[in-house]
Each structure stands twice: as structure tokens, then as C-alpha cells.
């Protein structure tokens, strides 16, 4: 088994840049990847639970020349580690230094065989080690302190989802320096709070406010039961789904960097299906 001590002082092999995009697999395609690369984003995170063959990651990399692609995340329960390892090797050979394998445990509601999650994470990382996936090209989905520490010990770092800059600050304290911290942040480009919440609330409530790992993490951050109930309080929705004009949204994203993140993957939420207008507005300010 390898750990962080094997590459102390070695930079992470994949350059993600400061800002990337996060989008569910069904909403990603090579044409979008080309446009996002032109805008100057550093990485595309494939959301959801991409299959073990990782064909979409390969397609996105084939269509582009510099942008990195990361999985956010491959689900350890659904994807055999040996198959994932072989897929990593195929992609890394074709696109060296541009693919980050993000893996995670998912949540207990998603599978009937979900048990002893920490032990599963450890054994899965062991299997990826055996399959030859370099530690510096892996990231681990992590929210709580125990898994954050494991991310620092066994991978390049952590990819927290559905968090706030306060969580980022706490995560950096736990991870220490020199460990990747790449949180996801949802944003809505709308200056009308009610309209913005109408877009953000469904994406946040279903399923995340009904999943124990996310709820527990929000409570660790100080949110109360009444904030989480009934679709989420306005204050919670505003924190998890930043809204406003481009300047306000950019400030919300930058807050994660100020709190210690190395990279922020931005998920644009909109009433329509096209995220590019939002990504263009953000790029004009941040990239």
C-alpha cells in the first residue's frame, strides 16, 4: 500500500487550474468541452457516477488539447476497481497529465449493500494501488474529518461536494498544506432572489437534503434542522447556490480560494439546459 509519504514534495501530476466546471454526465459532450477550454477553464468534472469504462472522460479529452478532465465521482460500490484501474491506464497513456480519477463512496441511500463505508474506501484505494493508478492522479470525495484525513494520506487530495467556504476553511486545516482541495460550488446567474432560489432549491433539495452524509455535514457546519427541512431555508439555499450578477457569483467562488481551496469546480444552474452563458460571464471576470 502506498501513501502520501511516497510523494511528499511532489506536485500533483494533473494541472486543474484555479477554476473548473462541474456538470452531470448527461449534460457533457465534446462540443461543450471545446467551448469551455476556449473560455480558459482548467478542468471539466464529470458529475454523477460515470461508469467504470470512463468512455466519456476519454471522449472529452480526445476533443480538447489542454483542459484536464476529472471524475466527480466514480462510485466505489458501482464500479469495479480493477476495471477502473484499466480504464485509467488507457486514458493516461493517451492523454498523460490531463486526467484526474476522482472516486468516492457515494451515500447509503443509493445502494442496499452500503455498509462499513470507511473500510470500503480503504480497500478500494488498495485495489487502485494494485491496479497501478498513481496516488498523485487520484482524488477522494470527502466531507467529514476522518475521510478528509484519508484523502490526504492516500490520494492527491479531496473533492468535497455541496459545501461552503466555511467547510473549505475547515477542510484545509485538516488536510494541511500541499494537499489538493477542490470543492464544488453551485451558482445561479440571476439577481432576483426568488427566481434564483426557484432554480437552486430543487437541485439542492433533491436529493441532497434527504441524504444522511450531506445532512450530517451541514449540521457540522452549524446549520439547524429547520434550515434543512421543507426544501431548505432561504439562507441555506443562498449559501449552497450562490446567486446574483456575475461579480457577486465570482466573489462567492473566490471565497473558496480565499478559504484555502486550490481549485473550485463551478456548477452553473439555470432554468434552461445551456450552462454556457453563465460560464462565459464567470470567465470574463475570473479567467
From TrEMBL:
SUPFAM superfamilies per record: Bacterial luciferase-like
GO function terms (MF aspect): oxidoreductase activity, acting on paired donors, with incorporation or reduction of molecular oxygen
Gene3D superfamilies according to UniProt: Luciferase-like domain
Database matches in Pfam families: Bac_luciferase
TM ranges: none
InterPro entries referenced in this protein's UniProt entry, alphabetically: Bact_Lucif_Oxidored, Lucif-like_OxRdatse_MSMEG_4141, Luciferase-like_dom, Luciferase-like_sf
Signal peptide: none
Gene Ontology, cellular component aspect: cytosol
NCBIfam families (UniProt xref): F420_MSMEG_4141
Cross-referenced PANTHER family: CONSERVED PROTEIN (PTHR30137:SF18), LUCIFERASE-LIKE MONOOXYGENASE (PTHR30137)
Protein's UniProt name: Probable F420-dependent oxidoreductase, MSMEG_4141 family
Amino acid at each position: 500500500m502506498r501513501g502520501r509519504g511516497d510523494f511528499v514534495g511532489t506536485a500533483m501530476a494533473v494541472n486543474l487550474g484555479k477554476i473548473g466546471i462541474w456538470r452531470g454526465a448527461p449534460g457533457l459532450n465534446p462540443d461543450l468541452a471545446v467551448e469551455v477550454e476556449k473560455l480558459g477553464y482548467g478542468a471539466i468534472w464529470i458529475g454523477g457516477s460515470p461508469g467504470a469504462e470512463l468512455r466519456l472522460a476519454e471522449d472529452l479529452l480526445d476533443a480538447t488539447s489542454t483542459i484536464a478532465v476529472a471524475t466527480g465521482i466514480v462510485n466505489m460500490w458501482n464500479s469495479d476497481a480493477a476495471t477502473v484501474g484499466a480504464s485509467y491506464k488507457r486514458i493516461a497513456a493517451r492523454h498523460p497529465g490531463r486526467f484526474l480519477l476522482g472516486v468516492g463512496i457515494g451515500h447509503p441511500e443509493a445502494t442496499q449493500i452500503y455498509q462499513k463505508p470507511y473500510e470500503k474506501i480503504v480497500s478500494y484505494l488498495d485495489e487502485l494501488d494494485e491496479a497501478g493508478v498513481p496516488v498523485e492522479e487520484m482524488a477522494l470525495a470527502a466531507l467529514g474529518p476522518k475521510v478528509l484525513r484519508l484523502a490526504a494520506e492516500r490520494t492527491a487530495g479531496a473533492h468535497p461536494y455541496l459545501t461552503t467556504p466555511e467547510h473549505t476553511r475547515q477542510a484545509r486545516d485538516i488536510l494541511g498544506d500541499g494537499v489538493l482541495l477542490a470543492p464544488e460550488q453551485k451558482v445561479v446567474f440571476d439577481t432576483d432572489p426568488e427566481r434564483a432560489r426557484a432554480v437552486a432549491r430543487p437541485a439542492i433539495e433533491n436529493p441532497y437534503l434527504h441524504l444522511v452524509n450531506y445532512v450530517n455535514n451541514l449540521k457540522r457546519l452549524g446549520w439547524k434542522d429547520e434550515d434543512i427541512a421543507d426544501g431548505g431555508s432561504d439562507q441555506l439555499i443562498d449559501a449552497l447556490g450562490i446567486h446574483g450578477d456575475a461579480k457577486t457569483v465570482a466573489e462567492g467562488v473566490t471565497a473558496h480560494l480565499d478559504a484555502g481551496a486550490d481549485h473550485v469546480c463551478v456548477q452553473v444552474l439555470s432554468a434552461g439546459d445551456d450552462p454556457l452563458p453563465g460560464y462565459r460571464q464567470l470567465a470574463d471576470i475570473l479567467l
